[in-house]
## 1
Amino acid sequence: MAADMDEFWVFGYGSLMWNPGFRFEEKLTARAFGYRRSLCVRSWVHRGTERRPGLVLGLDYGGSCIGMAFRVASAERVGVTNYLRERELVTHVYKERTMPVQLSDGRRVPALAYVIDRNHVQYAGALSAEAAAATVATAVGKSGNNREYVLNTLAHLKEMGIRDHWLEEVAANLTAGAAASAQA
């Protein structure tokens, strides 16, 4: 089932899913193929510092990612694109891409998305859940505690009925680490 080619869709895989910050006409669960949600972006401002970086989500190559797709009215396209560029391209760690996504109703549509630039200095690479948890456990930035960011993200994903096994493993390591610290 094909979509109208004049439609404008935006794909969110992190906070954009529950906090898009723009008006939309329709919102559906969607899957992007060839990319996965990953804590692969070193955060130097919002969830860490340059000396002690945190980790935030990026859309990295490999696998697939379930997220949310938002259909935006044609008249809002330019404004929404400009808003997203201001939000997502601050340090240019992400690249703006239009990619096919499959909506939960079976349609395949092109959607605007932001994927990690693997050549950017803030790209952390593919980390183990243990390594990611160790980084997240102690990082704090101007938007708060990195641990809270990860646990809040996971809570929102669960509310939306989206499982992310790797992120769940990171959270389990965070919880185990906090319990071990409390006993020490």
## 2
Amino acid sequence: MAYKELYDLYSKAMFNICYRITNDRYEAEDVLQEAFVSAFRNIGAFRAESSFGAWLKKIVVNRSINHMKKKRLEMTTLEENMDKAEITYRDEVPDDPERFTHNIELIKKAVNLLPHGYRMVLSLYLLEGYDHAEIAQIMEISESTSKSQYNRAKKKLKIILAELCTTN
């Protein structure tokens, strides 16, 4: 019964992490189940040095990344002659809630169009709150690679958003 309560409490947030990393609903569901099975089998290893959620999140992120490594997806690099534009953020929220929702959906779509490596670093850094040293360790890359992938992801995201805005 306690396992079901833990699953019900954490599954939605952990699914979102899996989905952001795998970018595929069915793969995310599989990874989520594997992560929970692993967590429940190893619950004795939980030392309460952090919250259960943080411990589970680490398992979920590692499982998701290992799943992607198994698929042998390689990190993609952008051409070096890309413009040096950066994403800018607006401080104000649009007055029209429908427009705001549309913008969120557009951003989600753009993030999903990023190359896999860029999307993973961007998600881990911006959405999951990992720093570049942690991302480097998780993804088995150097810290400088994590930073450059993040910067390239921002540039690529800006380009994709510009293209989506012109087509919508």
## 3
Amino acid sequence: MTQPNIVLIHWHDLGTRLGCYGRADVQSPRVDALAEQGLRFDAAFCTTPLCTPARASLFTGLYPPRHGHHGLAHRGSRYREGIRTLPMLLADQGYRTALTGMQHEAVDPKTIGFDEVFQLDGGGQFCGPVAGLAEAWLAQQPADAPFFLTVGFTETHRDFEVISRDETEPEPDRSELDRVVVPGYLPDNDHTRVDLAAMNRSIARADAATGRVIDAVRARPDADNTVIIFTTDHGIPFPRAKSTLYDSGIRISLIMVPPPAWQTSPAVVDQLVSHVDITPTLVDLAGGEADVDGVSVAGLLRGEPVERRAGVLSMKDQHEIYDPMRTLRTERHKYIRNLHPGPRLILPTDLDLSPTRAGMDADYRLPRDHEELYDLEADPDELTNLAADPANADLLASLRDQLAAELTHLDDAAFDAWAAAEQA
């Protein structure tokens, strides 16, 4: 099979807030159409609800204890020495590689393995101009060798109303607020509705820019041999989502469209996948192998079944302060182990200053439980912690042991230090 071109489009802080994921108040026609053309993954998860380490897992196939990023690059986090990134691995297979727009893995984007880097000067990598960079690059590439292009947007990170460095939008009007559907884990009031309506506008802008990139891909003579992947880093930038291990923080949009020449039927994939699976999948499609934590799901793009995962891991160490926690998420249940005492939520500054936060009560400051267990079928918003219920003792012990075994295998220093302190 001929090596396919690969185009990876990623937004910021999106979670699954798209029409194709059932968000009726969101206008995202171009991404929704993309989902109808390929594979929409309904149980895809990041490895951490933090920008830098989440993207590092996406671009290495490794969990944070392996790739070394535990916090944010602009706050000093770095890859471990010798880490091989996706553009490096694809270059080994003969690919030309380019980055247009945003990345969050390094202060200097030229250090993470791309042959070419194209970014806007002086600030955010806003979707409209970044789409222009991608269009120009795609128009200039010959069809004589495979390429890997990543397209990164600042959207839908806060501040939602910022369109460019020089332009902002006004607040949403009453009709927009009335159309908003508020998730069950957030307070339903005008504070939250203003916030979500503003994010919906940001989504619409990024969706239109994504459509421009897709059109540029489809205009190429080798479009029939091009894979398009769409994803994001983690959940939406709202309290009890971003920076938490609830599904609202770690469940992500993931769409993979196989090359049209492969004639793979569109499908909705309900099996668990993780960001660590993306790198081995793309290297597999390129004809190579990657020695990483994730597993290739390339078979799905070829219309073949792949083995179902029993669970996925996610973890958090440090956003603005140290706040270590770990989770094992199965198809039915979620187990969270909080390694440090603290309040139920520690909000990053952008969330703490948000309109949504202004409309919340103070319950989020109450002490957190050291263990959390949720039945995701009965309680998808994870509002009822079942860990203290004796009826769940066996399940709790089983998930606790499974998580400990996975983290021990990863040489997770934070977990090992906590376990040692518990035994002392």
## 4
Amino acid sequence: MTYLLLILGFALLIKGAEWLVNGAVSVARRFGVSDLVIGLSIVSMGTSMPELIVSIIASAKGSSELAIGNVLGSNIANVLLILGVTAIIRTLPVHRNTILSEVPFSLAAALLVGFLANAALFGEQANQLSISRGDGIIILFFFLLFMAYVITVAREDKKKLKIEIAARTPLYKSLFLIGIGMASLFLGGKWVVDGAVELAEMFGMSETLIGLTVVALGTSLPELVTSIMAALKNNTDIAVGNAVGSNIFNLLWILGVSAIIRPLPFDVASNVDIFVVIAASCMILVALIIGRRMAIKRLQGIAFVAAYAIYLYFVVKRG
């Protein structure tokens, strides 16, 4: 049954990603919104659904290590694995807004979470590190700021872009594709994670290790498949926006909601993983500086994937 869930889950992830990308691109062109904005919003939200469900359930059950490990591990996979693999398939041009706004915002979100987790500003016990409900409210406030930014960019893009009326897909069909795509991603992600966690527990892996590896990889599959499908369709804006946007959603929306449901005790060892999240965001900027043409190329993609393999080795060795 476990293996069956994994196979069905992967199948749903692949089809769900294809439906979601097709529907999102159609909506973007209909309303004159750029693919990048759709990637930062609708696609990011849809592909972050597995992380959201897993973290909320883990938080409600008191499994804070799984909730935090899932978010941090997914963010590392989003940059190093997903952008890396996608760049190997096709060179990823990166917009000026992404360099000056979205990547720095993602970096600031990681720094904010790291600061709140270690400062214990609202903790009941000063000597106990945690992401408290008060911290969760602060984190959600910054998420609202990000959404305000996305709305502003969408309005600016609508003024610049010309709508191709002849190429329109019926709106009901686009919305149906988005809806069924998100539902398939959610269900497929849940089945993959459930099956993977069950297999991992058979080998006696710790909750933190499961969260950073098996669950993080499982819940990142929608982002991976969606970005690959977008790159194959030459919608590279969605691929980049999906990865960066998902990182912001994971840190600000998912951790914020999870902390409000129940305060998340924070293990000081997880600071290493937060550092890797920060370093991964910096690697995007470094890759762009080296590439010079505002793009992440195949060579940088290989470096990203190699860095992720090294990180996984470190995490497994740490146990």
